[in-house]
Every structure is written in C-alpha cells, then in structure tokens.
Design a protein that fits this description.
This protein is an all-alpha fold and 286 residues long. Helices cover 78% and strands 0% of the residues. It has 13 helices and no strands. It has helices at residues 2-19, 21-28, 34-55, 66-87, 93-99, 103-113, 121-140, 148-174, 176-197, 208-236, 238-241, 248-260, 266-285. It starts with a helix and ends with a helix.
Length: 286
C-alpha cells in the first residue's frame, strides 16, 4: 500500500512537470526550429544525465536492456519532442494539450501488449470514456480542422505511450532516473551532430522566453520529470498511475494561461471535471 501511495505521489509530480512542456515548447519554437530544439534539449539533458550516472557510479545496462532503452529513446527523447515541436508551430499550447489526455490509454495499451498484468474491464471503460471526452473536445475545438499538425499530435501520443510503457518496465530493473538517463545517453551520439547541423544562424534575435522554453524542456521535461514519472509507474503500476496523465492537459491550461495568455473556456473546465471522474474510476479498478 505504501509503495502504491508513493507511486501515485511521484506520478503526480511528474505529470505537473510534464504539464509545462507544451507551453514551454510553444515558447521555444517561436525562435528555434523543431530539429534544433529537439536535438538541443536531448543533448543538454544527456550531458546532465551522464554527469549524474558518473557521480553516482551507476552500472552499465545489460545487453538485453539495449532494445528497451532504444524504444524509450525513440519514443520520449526524440519522437515525441520532435513531433510536438512541429505541431506547435501551427497550433496553440492549449489545443495540443487536449491530445495528451489520450496518453493514459496508449500507455495502458502498450503495457498490456508487453504482457503485464491486465486491469479489470471497468478500467478500460473509464479509460475509453476519459480518452473519448478529451478527443471529442480536441476535435470540436475551433482550431481543429483535421490538419497535418493534429495528426502529428496523435502520432506523438502513440509514440510517447510506447516509450512510457517500456520505460516503466526498465525502471523496475534499472531505477527510475537511471532509465531516462541511459536513454538520453543512448540518444546523445545522434543529438549532438543534429544540433550542430541545425544551429541557428544568429542567436541575437532569440528572445529570452525562447531560451527559457529550451531550458525547461531540457532539464525538467526531458530529465527531472521522468525521474518522478518512471518511479511512479514502477511503484504504482503502469496502467493505474498512467491515468494521471488525464490531468496533464488541465494543469497545462494553467501554465498556458499564465505564460502564453491563452484563454480557457467553460468547455475546457467541463472536460477537466469529466477527466477527473475518469481518473478516480480508473484508479479504483486498475
């Protein structure tokens, strides 16, 4: 019971940190290209991660862990950041955040495909209802017009769900922060050359807000948030704790309103209430 409580607390902390990712990315892509932003955030986070691994004298992953680490790296270090960065060049942070409500269903689905313990049917009912509520709002929003940027967000969610599920399994063997640290280290040889190739012509016109966005997604979204998140998934269960992701869009609304001055309407609040009910139901039957 104590492990489950600790898992839910850590998972919630991770969700709060991740909730700032879309607004921060929106700030960053105003002056940085998606390719540079993705490679730079991975490179900066990997540098810090390697220092942590060295100072704490962590043992190298086993050969059988390399495939799982590759999936994590492709999913959450490269794939999700790159796809969302491209999408956020044309949609608001609030609009993109609505798609993240589908992450719990994707995470749970991939955990089942991996052969983990299957949740009760009621769990899937609450998950599907929660995902449908979020998806319905996203599709009915004024900005939504079935553009390629909406498709990018859907692809990003699917890829991220695979990375979350794979990382949760690894975290039980390697540890929470060690998992994302080694995944970052694995991505570093590709991230550094790409960052150099996509280096901005001049940094003089880069706004302070863009630098702040880059710093946030590099340290918090790419490393610190995962320390809490993978610890939560490992302790509380991937399918159960993963439902906390339904709260991420609505926590993110607060960040979007505060830092980007995006408006939050009544439909968003109604959707948030429905998602909270689904989280409670999913937790009960997970």
């Amino acid at each position: 019971m104590k492990n489950k409580a600790s898992g839910w607390a850590s998972g919630l902390a991770g969700v709060v940190i991740f909730a700032g990712s879309m607004p921060a990315t929106r700030l960053a892509v105003a002056d940085f290209t998606p390719l540079f932003l993705t490679s730079a955030r991975a490179g900066l986070a990997a540098t810090v991660a390697l220092m942590l691994l060295s100072v704490c004298r962590q043992r190298m992953p086993q050969r059988e862990d390399l495939l799982s680490l590759t999936i994590v790296a492709l999913g959450v270090v490269i794939g999700f950041p790159l796809l969302t960065a491209f999408a956020l060049q044309g949609v608001s942070a609030a609009h993109s955040l609505m798609y993240l409500g589908l992450l719990p269903l994707c995470t749970a689905a991939f955990s089942v495909l991996r052969g983990e313990r299957r949740p009760k049917p009621a769990f899937w009912l609450f998950s599907l209802v929660g995902g449908a509520v979020v998806a319905s709002y996203a599709l009915a929003a004024k900005e939504s017009h079935a553009s390629w940027r909406d498709l990018l967000m859907i692809a990003a969610v699917i890829i991220c769900g695979a990375g979350y599920a794979e990382g949760a399994c690894l975290a039980r063997r390697l540890g929470g922060w060690q998992t994302i640290a080694w995944a970052l280290a694995l991505a570093l040889p590709a991230a550094l050359p790409l960052a150099v190739l996509t280096w901005p012509v001049s940094f003089r016109e880069v706004a302070f807000s863009a630098w702040m966005g880059l710093g946030y997604v590099s340290l918090f979204s790419m490393l610190i948030g995962f320390i809490f998140w993978y610890h939560g998934l490992a302790k509380g269960g991937t399918a159960a704790v993963g439902q906390l992701q339904l709260l991420q869009p609505f926590i993110g609304f607060g960040f979007a309103a505060l830092f980007l001055h995006e408006s939050i309407d009544g439909a968003m609040l109604a959707c948030a209430s429905a998602a909270l009910i689904c989280v409670a139901g999913a937790k009960k039957f997970a």
